[in-house]
Amino acid sequence: MHDEPDVKYYLCSSATSTVVIGYLRLQLPGFFIDEVRRAIVVPAERRMRDSDAEYQVHRQAKPGDPFRQEDFSYALKTPWPFQDREVLQRRWQLPLGEAGGMAIVGRSFEDETVLPQRSDRVRAVAQKAAYLFRPLGADASGVAAEGPGPGLELAICQQLDLGGIVPTWAQRLCSRLAVQRSVEWGAKLKEHCLRMREQEELASATTASADPTAAPPPAERSMQERPMTGQQVLDAIIEIERVCCGCGIASSGMPDGDATDATQASDALRASPTRAAAVAVAAETEAGTKGAAPEGAAEPAAVLPESGDCTYKVECLLDEPDVKYCLCSSLESPIVTGYLRVILHDVYPGDVWGALVKKEERLLRAPDSEYQVLREGRPGDPSLEEDVAFVWRAPWPFWDRDVLQRRWTFPLHGSEGLAIVMRSFTDDELLPEREDRVRAFVQKAGYLLRPMNEGRHEMGVELTVCQQVDLGGLCPEWAQEVLTRWAVSRGVQWSEDLRAHCRRRHDEGIAEEHEEEEEEGAGVASARSP
Q1: 464 pLDDT exceeds 90?
Q2: 52 phi and psi, to 5 degrees?
Q3: DSSP H or E run through 204
């Protein structure tokens, strides 16, 4: 019904059926996927674009839901003499292809408690509905020859049961109206996105021009400018661990004030007396300084150390007896904190330490990490301070990150464990920045190794990994969901690969010892023979 280079519209209908299928494809050069996505799903922006739609979200996505399932409704205004339609839908957001695309798919459902039917409207049923976002240049499967830049193709498909048969005489009128509204909808969408850009640029310019010579307040200074000792990094890592230990699957909205599941917190602490004692002491200290909260008062939002004004949502994405993974992030900041705790029953603490810090071991485990020790520890330094560099390989379309770190090793008090802590620093002579990579700043990172049994020479170790990283760029909401699922799978796979590496290297070491013993025995026997 409409076929132009930037706009295409199809309508499928029948005089004997109430079901209508509409397909609209728009080419939007110069626009970004996330700004168009926000215009479609964010209630405030949706109402700005179309105040008559009565758009509202009845049930928001639960914290930690990778598909962001939501329930929403809107009204379809129809020309006289037809009655207006209303739609109640459930929608999900999914990645699409390998080029950074995404899909918002939905389907109607019935729930009178969420949206009671009105006598002056007909309840339309969206049997299938989707918004498909693809970077310009991507094919139907989502694969693009080049990386995504400004520009996308937006395809909208809806299979709608209008709740009443449209007579033949009115079908042509409705078809023309559908084409006209679709073209207008696309134009309004572009105008809205441009207007939102202008508002954001104006707000940024106003903030920047307030006092260009004034120094930023301490809370806004970059954490990269704050020097930290190795002990300060270790203290911050222990605090991050304390926050994440209290977060479980059932409570995964801890920063939003949800109560923490006491059973899960107890189970998380039971495996490590040292960690349990630290959390207990911190809890007593807070109780003594702040006092008991008034009855019925909301819990304060959990804010990670040095998180500034942002409240980081701490989400427990995996919580099993031998592995736990938490991710702490905010759409307002490029800083992401990952927490991984694994129990490795069949490896030795010393083998894990070697796999984490020895250059030859790191390159065996991850040859594409380009891991290198740029400055080794000085003789006699109890903290073994070293400077290291490596590369994080990111999934396409994200750029690889390179990291320059200073590393220290400390004993963990109260146990025979060890802490290996790191923090980034800047030295272009030591590691020049590359145009094809983003320099990631690791604010704090740590490996906490706690033997499960009598000491380091007994099999079994609890390994906690914490990393607070400035990724060097904000990730849009849709991309954070993709990266979240990727991070969990990578974290679990990383621990499995580490375990396999330690087992293999330990077995190789035993075999080498046996060979040396056999050679020594053969040498002794040869010397004794006449």
Answers
A1: yes
A2: -80, -10
A3: helix 168-209
